[in-house]
Amino acid sequence: MKITYTAPNRAHHYPYAEALHRADYLHAFISGFSRFSPRAALPAIGDKLKRHDFFQNLYLASLKFNTGFYISSKFNHLTNLSLDKASYTSASESDAFIFYRTEGYTTTRKLKKKNRTRYVLWKK
Fold it and tell me: Is 17 domain-assigned?
Protein backbone atom coordinates (compact mmCIF):
# COMPACT_ATOMS: atom_id res chain seq x y z
CA MET A 1 0.00 0.00 0.00
CA LYS A 2 1.23 3.49 -0.88
CA ILE A 3 0.04 6.51 1.11
CA THR A 4 0.34 10.22 0.37
CA TYR A 5 0.14 12.40 3.48
CA THR A 6 -0.39 16.19 3.32
CA ALA A 7 -0.01 18.49 6.35
CA PRO A 8 0.40 22.26 6.83
CA ASN A 9 2.72 22.17 9.85
CA ARG A 10 5.05 20.00 11.91
CA ALA A 11 3.05 19.23 15.10
CA HIS A 12 2.13 15.54 15.20
CA HIS A 13 2.42 15.12 11.43
CA TYR A 14 6.20 14.54 11.33
CA PRO A 15 6.02 11.53 13.69
CA TYR A 16 3.07 10.12 11.69
CA ALA A 17 5.00 10.48 8.43
CA GLU A 18 8.04 8.79 10.00
CA ALA A 19 5.88 5.91 11.25
CA LEU A 20 4.33 5.43 7.80
CA HIS A 21 7.81 5.44 6.28
CA ARG A 22 9.11 2.85 8.77
CA ALA A 23 6.14 0.63 7.88
CA ASP A 24 7.06 1.12 4.19
CA TYR A 25 3.69 2.71 3.33
CA LEU A 26 4.70 6.33 2.73
CA HIS A 27 4.70 7.35 -0.92
CA ALA A 28 5.02 11.12 -0.33
CA PHE A 29 4.78 13.59 2.54
CA ILE A 30 3.65 17.02 1.32
CA SER A 31 4.54 19.56 4.00
CA GLY A 32 3.78 23.24 4.44
CA PHE A 33 6.13 23.52 7.41
CA SER A 34 8.74 26.25 6.86
CA ARG A 35 12.11 25.04 5.63
CA PHE A 36 13.68 27.94 7.55
CA SER A 37 12.76 26.52 10.94
CA PRO A 38 15.53 24.85 12.95
CA ARG A 39 13.09 21.92 13.38
CA ALA A 40 12.40 21.56 9.64
CA ALA A 41 14.70 18.62 8.94
CA LEU A 42 13.14 15.23 8.44
CA PRO A 43 16.03 13.04 7.27
CA ALA A 44 14.28 9.80 8.28
CA ILE A 45 12.02 9.86 5.20
CA GLY A 46 14.58 11.14 2.70
CA ASP A 47 13.32 12.33 -0.67
CA LYS A 48 9.68 11.50 0.14
CA LEU A 49 9.40 14.93 1.82
CA LYS A 50 8.11 17.53 -0.60
CA ARG A 51 8.01 21.08 0.74
CA HIS A 52 5.43 23.61 -0.40
CA ASP A 53 5.98 26.34 2.17
CA PHE A 54 6.14 29.60 0.18
CA PHE A 55 2.70 30.88 1.21
CA GLN A 56 3.05 29.42 4.69
CA ASN A 57 6.20 31.53 5.17
CA LEU A 58 4.31 34.62 4.02
CA TYR A 59 1.45 33.73 6.37
CA LEU A 60 3.84 33.40 9.33
CA ALA A 61 5.51 36.71 8.43
CA SER A 62 2.11 38.41 8.25
CA LEU A 63 1.32 37.18 11.74
CA LYS A 64 4.69 38.30 13.08
CA PHE A 65 4.37 41.79 11.63
CA ASN A 66 0.67 42.21 12.49
CA THR A 67 -0.47 42.93 8.95
CA GLY A 68 -4.09 42.40 9.90
CA PHE A 69 -6.66 39.67 9.64
CA TYR A 70 -7.48 40.14 5.96
CA ILE A 71 -3.91 39.70 4.69
CA SER A 72 -3.12 36.86 7.10
CA SER A 73 -6.28 34.98 6.16
CA LYS A 74 -5.48 35.38 2.44
CA PHE A 75 -2.01 33.87 2.93
CA ASN A 76 -3.53 31.05 4.97
CA HIS A 77 -6.01 30.36 2.18
CA LEU A 78 -3.23 30.40 -0.44
CA THR A 79 -1.25 27.95 1.71
CA ASN A 80 -4.21 25.57 1.71
CA LEU A 81 -4.64 25.85 -2.06
CA SER A 82 -0.93 25.36 -2.68
CA LEU A 83 -0.76 22.19 -0.59
CA ASP A 84 -3.92 20.88 -2.19
CA LYS A 85 -2.59 21.43 -5.70
CA ALA A 86 0.81 19.94 -4.82
CA SER A 87 -0.84 16.79 -3.47
CA TYR A 88 -2.66 15.69 -6.59
CA THR A 89 0.17 14.02 -8.51
CA SER A 90 1.42 11.98 -5.57
CA ALA A 91 -2.08 11.15 -4.36
CA SER A 92 -3.12 9.90 -7.79
CA GLU A 93 -0.21 7.42 -7.64
CA SER A 94 -1.20 6.23 -4.15
CA ASP A 95 -3.68 3.78 -2.72
CA ALA A 96 -4.63 6.15 0.10
CA PHE A 97 -4.55 9.92 0.64
CA ILE A 98 -4.44 11.50 4.10
CA PHE A 99 -4.80 15.24 4.52
CA TYR A 100 -5.45 17.73 7.27
CA ARG A 101 -8.36 20.20 7.26
CA THR A 102 -8.79 21.65 3.77
CA GLU A 103 -5.39 20.89 2.26
CA GLY A 104 -6.76 18.10 0.09
CA TYR A 105 -10.37 18.91 -0.67
CA THR A 106 -9.98 19.62 -4.40
CA THR A 107 -7.56 16.74 -4.82
CA THR A 108 -10.07 14.43 -3.17
CA ARG A 109 -12.83 15.51 -5.53
CA LYS A 110 -10.61 14.94 -8.57
CA LEU A 111 -9.47 11.54 -7.31
CA LYS A 112 -13.01 10.39 -6.62
CA LYS A 113 -14.11 11.48 -10.10
CA LYS A 114 -11.33 9.44 -11.69
CA ASN A 115 -11.49 6.53 -9.18
CA ARG A 116 -7.75 6.91 -8.55
CA THR A 117 -7.53 6.04 -4.85
CA ARG A 118 -9.35 3.56 -2.69
CA TYR A 119 -9.11 5.45 0.60
CA VAL A 120 -9.25 9.10 1.56
CA LEU A 121 -8.77 10.09 5.19
CA TRP A 122 -9.58 13.58 6.34
CA LYS A 123 -8.31 14.76 9.71
CA LYS A 124 -9.99 17.70 11.43
Answer: yes
Among 118, 91, 124, smallest CA distance to 106 is for 91
pTM attached to this predicted model: 0.87
32-78 pLDDT per residue, tens: 999 999 999 999 999 999 999 999 999 999 999 999 999 999 999 99
Backbone CA torsion sign across 97, 101, 104, 106: positive
Chain segment 4-41, per-residue pLDDT in tens: 999 999 999 999 999 999 999 999 999 999 999 999 99
CATH of the domain at 26: 3.40.50
Segments forming the whole domain that contains residue 8: 3-52+84-123
**Amino acid sitting at position 14:** Y
Q: Domain total for the chain? A: 1
The phi and psi torsions of 27 (rounded to 5 degrees) equal -90, -45
